[in-house]
């Protein structure tokens, strides 16, 4: 593959078999057949039907489908077609699948967005005629023309460049337009961001003009390479998806084992095979919380709504909780940590630092506004006035700084009209303009690189007077410049020279009769001073970084900008500090909040905390995985480097969140565990490759999202705890009854009612519990830590035993003390007949067991909210849970008390005495768990 940047433009033309007159239309058509259109390939979308079918791949769902089918066919073969149970199971499964499809992110639009970013048209030379054609018609070898405001339609080697500057921020990460030079010949292994003789698709011409020969189109461009990475790289499963998948599989296997055991136990006890088979299937239904996927989806949806109100839009539901598990946040610098807007931060004269409002400061900003091609734009009036600038970012910063102290460039141009200019030139590194003064004289203003201007100055402006530049003053100015550059400021030197009204030089300029070199004007100048500017950090980001570190999250900067600039910003934000630890996943700053506050005392970053793209290219991925723990800043990196960094962190077991806004960020956003794109400044490519979009472009919004994500995961864990402890209670109720020769306490339809209705609403209500106050002072949840760690398994089992025991106790009390009055006398005399009749006849024991099992779970839901006592957190602090308790309790009473519903669920109305027993038994989980909490606290 030819390195176009390392050969001359003449060699490039020969290599591409092209000429300055352009290709003929016949040759262009021939090449189009070979190379294809200048568009990006689209990834094939998964059909809606297949996306729907994919929702049924979960092991837990497959187990439920199997149970529904078995229930249907067995009842059919037995001559008693029962459609209620299979219908309920399949309805739940289908509803869950529909929710999954609706809530999933829409078909990937990253490539479509990349296509939209391509220039719709291009100026191209064909048959020695300049014409505008559709950009997709371009082929390698075409000669294209570029002017200010044009999009770059393809990758190309520059042939000519006149003050040409290209904004490639969305691709390279550079915070300012790159000055291009067609004459340059570069080294073969130079990074894309430094190829000043090349232009890349999606760039924008911000200044000057040029011509170029197309070297690559479509998928062969740098953007096409990114598109291919997006197509090929699969988004990893989120920690929640992994945990729920593991949980579902474990529950499904457990359900099958339980089915086999209960079936064998029943056969050993000489129970009918059909009866035991149906009981086993019912027990499998009880063992699997079939509403769990739907409940989790609903809880995530509620979390999404809350996060949207806080300017964080979630595109992929399972990714909501991933931020809560994040251990590293990799952030792009330009536009993410910074404002993506060059701003004047320091002004110096030969005396030292000056205030912008002072006489010297005003003088400097006046000169820099006049020697300036940017345009000041003011819209609105009074308080609603909006001020912006159009032009090269450096010049924009200068005129905006002047406007802040009352200097309007438009008025200055009228007061000091420009009569002549020498445009900026990369070889001279300066720009000169000449203006007419109100007194009739003329003033030449030159701005540019400090070292160049200093060599052309003989005097310095000092307190309204001109002082000769001595050796001492020269060293003083040099130290000022070095001090500013050490802060990663871009330094612009400003100088001037006055001419009298009768100056022959000015006269010859005006009459266009100047024959000698115009550069003679840029000699004998007076140094006015230095102006330093930088793309400043967002003011709220420093606190956000501090909060991330408190939460055990390590922020890492990944940028295409220069390492000195990146380190300066990282140092100011607290990403680089003297306390940066080698433990990447949980910084030493987390030890105490006071240590975090002390980290504001920054020192110069050590060399091992920042790595450049060139250094990164020299090491293998294995070495990067080993060494990456030492780095907090990665500068001058390419899109491939960003993906390597993300994957190296993931290889170390980190859960990586990646923020960004440019095209160059898209592959890394997709590769990360969760990608966060900027909503305002972000490109469509970044947004569509991301899992989350920050609508206010505020890095601090990530902090709120992290807190919300952690809260959501805690609430999901509460719901799982609640559902499984209740389901274990149901399993034990049936299993123990059959083991001891009792009738089945619950029918399948009753089990489904308990699982679907009484479990679902409380579980969903647990999902809106507010996060704990100290949630951002805890460690991130390790990605390999199971959902049932920290003793949760033991809690679930013991609480399940408690609920099952209470339901069995109600069942036995009902049979022994109340069913004598409800079953016929001939049935009572025959114990075997009692057992058989109890399987199909409504009776008090089963009804009481049904009621206690439901109501005890509803009471138990209040135990799930916190490790603290209900009295401490407040009974009504989650009003939705209280309402769900009341609604579900009412539904349970209605099912038992209303005869048509009682017939469907095969229960009988209870007397006040029986209801009293039910209520006492149902309330016991509150008493027992409260005693446990008190004992644990002591």
From TrEMBL:
Keywords: ATP-binding, Cell membrane, Magnesium, Membrane, Nucleotide-binding, Translocase, Transmembrane, Transmembrane helix
InterPro entries reported in the protein's UniProt record: ATPase_P-typ_cation-transptr_C (IPR006068), ATPase_P-typ_cation-transptr_N (IPR004014), ATPase_P-typ_cyto_dom_N (IPR023299), ATPase_P-typ_P_site (IPR018303), ATPase_P-typ_TM_dom_sf (IPR023298), ATPase_P-typ_transduc_dom_A_sf (IPR008250), ATPase_P-type_domA (IPR059000), Cation_transp_ATPase_P-type (IPR050510)
Limits of the Cation-transporting P-type ATPase N-terminal domain: 3-76
Ranges that cross the membrane: 59-77, 83-102, 250-268, 280-302, 720-742, 796-818, 881-901, 913-931
SUPFAM superfamilies, per database record: Calcium ATPase, transduction domain A, Calcium ATPase, transmembrane domain M, HAD-like, Metal cation-transporting ATPase, ATP-binding domain N
Top-level lineage group: Bacteria
Catalytic reaction(s) noted: Ca(2+)(in) + ATP + H2O = Ca(2+)(out) + ADP + phosphate + H(+)
Localisation: Cell membrane
One term under GO cellular component: plasma membrane
Family under the similarity heading: Belongs to the cation transport ATPase (P-type) (TC 3.A.3) family. Type IIA subfamily.
Protein name: ATPase
Organism of this sequence: Anaerocolumna chitinilytica
């Amino acid at each position: 593959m030819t390195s176009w940047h390392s050969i001359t433009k003449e060699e490039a033309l020969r290599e591409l078999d092209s000429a300055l007159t352009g290709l003929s239309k016949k040759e262009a058509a021939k090449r189009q057949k070979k190379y294809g259109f200048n568009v990006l390939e689209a990834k094939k979308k998964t059909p809606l039907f297949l996306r729907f079918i994919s929702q049924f791949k979960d092991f837990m769902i497959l187990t439920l489908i199997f149970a529904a089918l078995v229930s249907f066919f067995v009842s059919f073969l037995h001559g008693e077609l029962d459609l209620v149970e299979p219908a309920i199971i399949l309805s739940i499964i289908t509803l869950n699948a529909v929710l999954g499809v609706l809530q999933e992110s829409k078909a990937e639009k990253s490539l479509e967005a990349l296509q939209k970013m391509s220039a719709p048209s291009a100026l191209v030379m064909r048959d020695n005629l300049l014409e505008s054609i559709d950009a997709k018609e371009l082929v390698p070898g075409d000669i294209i023309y570029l002017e200010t405001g044009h999009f770059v339609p393809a990758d190309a080697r520059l042939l000519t460049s006149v003050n040409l500057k290209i904004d490639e921020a969305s691709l390279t990460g550079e915070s300012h337009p790159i000055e291009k030079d067609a004459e340059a010949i570069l080294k073969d292994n130079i990074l894309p961001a430094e190829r000043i003789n090349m232009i890349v698709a999606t760039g924008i011409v911000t200044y000057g003009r040029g011509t170029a020969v197309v070297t690559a189109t479509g998928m062969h461009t740098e953007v096409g390479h990114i598109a291919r990475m997006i197509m090929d790289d699969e988004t990893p499963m989120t920690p929640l998806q992994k945990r729920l998948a593991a949980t579902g599989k474990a529950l499904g296997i457990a359900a099958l084992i339980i089915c086999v055991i209960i079936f064998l136990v029943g056969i050993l006890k000489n129970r009918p095979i059909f009866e035991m088979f149906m009981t086993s299937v019912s027990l499998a239904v009880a063992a699997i919380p079939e509403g769990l996927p739907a409940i989790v989806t609903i809880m995530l949806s509620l979390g999404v709504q809350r996060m949207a109100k806080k300017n964080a839009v979630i595109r992929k539901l399972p990714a909501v909780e991933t931020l809560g598990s994040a251990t590293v946040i990799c952030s792009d610098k330009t536009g993410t940590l910074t404002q993506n807007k060059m701003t004047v931060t320091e002004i110096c004269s030969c005396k030292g630092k000056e205030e912008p409002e002072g006489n010297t400061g005003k003088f400097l900003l006046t000169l820099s506004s006049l020697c300036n091609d940017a345009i000041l734009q003011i819209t609105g009036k009074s308080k609603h006035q909006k001020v912006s600038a159009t032009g090269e970012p450096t010049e924009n910063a200068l005129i905006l700084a002047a406007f802040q102290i009352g200097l309007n460039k438009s008025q200055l141009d009228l007061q000091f009209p420009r009569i002549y200019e020498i445009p900026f030139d990369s070889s001279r590194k300066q720009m000169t303009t000449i203006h007419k003064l109100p007194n009739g004289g003329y003033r030449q203003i030159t701005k540019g690189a400090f070292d160049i201007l200093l060599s052309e100055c003989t005097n310095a402006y000092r307190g309204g007077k001109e002082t000769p530049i001595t050796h001492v003053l020269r060293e003083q100015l040099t130290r000022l410049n070095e001090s500013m550059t050490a802060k990663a400021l871009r330094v612009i030197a400003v100088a001037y020279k006055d001419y009298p009204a009768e100056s022959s030089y000015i006269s010859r300029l005006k009459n266009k009769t100047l024959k000698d070199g115009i550069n003679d004007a840029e000699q004998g100048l007076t140094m006015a001073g230095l102006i330093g500017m930088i793309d400043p950090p967002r003011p709220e980001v420093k606190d956000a970084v501090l909060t991330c570190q408190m939460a055990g999250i390590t922020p890492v900067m990944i940028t295409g900008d220069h390492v000195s600039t990146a380190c300066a910003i990282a140092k100011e934000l607290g990403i680089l500090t003297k306390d940066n630890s080698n433990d990447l996943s949980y910084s030493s700053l987390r030890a105490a909040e006071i240590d975090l506050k002390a980290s504001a005392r920054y020192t110069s970053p050590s060399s091992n905390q920042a790595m450049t793209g060139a250094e990164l290219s020299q090491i293998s991925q294995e070495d990067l995985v080993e060494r990456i723990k030492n780095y907090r800043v990665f500068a001058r990196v390419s899109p491939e480097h960003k993906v390597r960094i993300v994957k190296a962190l993931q290889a170390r077991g980190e859960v990586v969140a990646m923020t960004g806004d440019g095209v160059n960020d898209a592959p890394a956003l997709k590769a990360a565990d969760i990608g966060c794109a900027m909503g305002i400044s972000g490109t469509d490519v970044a947004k569509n490759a991301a899992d989350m979009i920050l609508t206010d472009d505020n890095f601090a919004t990530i902090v709120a999202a992290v807190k919300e994500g952690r809260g959501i995961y805690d609430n999901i864990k509460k719901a799982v705890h609640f559902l499984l402890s209740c389901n274990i209670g149901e399993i034990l109720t049936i299993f123990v009854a059959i083991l001891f020769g009792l009738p089945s306490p619950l029918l399948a339809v009753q089990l489904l009612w308990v699982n679907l209705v009484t479990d679902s609403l409380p579980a969903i209500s647990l999902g809106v519990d507010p996060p704990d106050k100290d949630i951002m002072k805890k460690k991130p949840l390790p990605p390999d830590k199971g959902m049932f760690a920290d003793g949760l398994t033991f809690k679930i089992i013991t609480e399940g035993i408690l609920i099952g025991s209470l339901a069995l106790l109600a069942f036995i009390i009902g049979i022994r003390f109340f069913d004598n009055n409800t079953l016929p006398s001939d049935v009572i005399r025959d114990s075997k007949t009692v057992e058989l009749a109890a399987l199909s006849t409504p009776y008090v024991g089963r009804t009481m067991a049904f009621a206690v099992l439901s109501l005890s779970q509803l009471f138990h839901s209040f135990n799930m909210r916190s490790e603290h006592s209900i009295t401490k957190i407040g009974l009504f602090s989650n009003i939705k849970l209280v309402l769900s308790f009341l609604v579900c309790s009412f539904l349970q009473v209605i099912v038992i008390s209303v005869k048509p519903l009682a017939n469907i669920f095969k229960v009988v109305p209870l007397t006040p005495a029986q209801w009293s027993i039910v209520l006492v038994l149902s309330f016991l989980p509150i008493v027992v768990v409260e005693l446990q909490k008190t004992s644990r606290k002591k």
